[in-house]
């Protein structure tokens, strides 16, 4: 399938990572990822959507991007976007690669099973996945969804079948004791999806459709065939900006899609809660890319609200697609980049800056 909107690089002039210390001390420019990590929130004073809009347009011109846009939804109860900033137009129905953003949707499916009592966040997964070795069987669903499981353990699911992947996992040992280290890897998503399949007796694609896609109206979202992902379930896939907006609206609207309850408010709060509070996360490459040192369940915790629950969370992929929820302002946003050349290593960092600037602009805007 041709991908019409490919998430790519977003370079934001003064936002560029790696400026000198003298430049970093200047509050007039947009903040860098390093400054976000340091908590330099004073740099967000006076941020406006006009500023975000112009920055996106300037960089699209300078870098030869087909588009660089922020799609924003601020109307509670409606899944439709209310504003688009930067260049356009953004085709809301054009396919985009989910990449690592797929873990947000995987987490949502698993949490519906927690809500109905089929699974527990803190029970050993070996109770259900009985073929796992004893060390792996002690892992919990919470640890899978927060990337603190101790996986990967040198496992490569080279064979294009789920069964072969499962066999490789079953005989493995974690590289870290479960719950004692943070490392992002899609093997966590595969094991979580297999846990859901075994617990329910339903295939993953059916679970996703019934529990998330259908009630949220996400008719253009699907996960990649395991034969293309080395036998791993719930890894990558295709979505659209419209579908991502519909799902983010469910999270914003207390887990509801119209009259349907998709997720409980308790599960959403648990997603936003810090699951890595006692861990040293600085060696994880994604921490350097996002500038965000803590992780919830399936989401990065971009901005905190003064307790252990985040007000802004995100689920970026490596090409700069950056869906985020601002729970503190009942808003969601998606940074969408169309780069006709090739992705750059700093795409995640620069999209993270746009998400942070958006949070600041929402707080500066009249209620």
Describe this structure in words.
With 367 residues, the chain is of the alpha+beta class. It is built from 13 helices and eleven strands. Strands 2-1-11-10-9-8 form a six-stranded antiparallel β-sheet, sandwiched between helices. A three-stranded antiparallel β-sheet has the order 3-5-4. A two-stranded antiparallel ribbon has the order 6-7. A hairpin with a 2-residue loop joins strand 6 and strand 7. Helix 4 crosses helix 9. The longest helix has 18 residues. The N terminus is likely disordered.
What is the strand and helix layout of this fold?
Elements (H helix, E strand, L loop, with lengths): L20 H4 L8 H5 L11 H15 L3 E7 L9 E4 L8 E3 L4 H14 L18 H4 L3 H5 L16 H9 L16 H14 L3 H13 L5 E2 L13 E4 H12 L3 E2 L2 E2 L3 H8 L12 H6 L9 E5 L5 E5 L7 E5 L4 E8 L8 H18 L3
Helix pairs in contact: 4-8, 4-9
Q: Round the Cα radius of gyration to an integer and report it.
A: 20 Å
Detail the poorly predicted runs: 1-28
Briefly note the structural class of the backbone: alpha+beta
**Count of beta strands:** 11
Element-level helix/strand string = HHHEEEHHHHHHEEHEEHHEEEEH
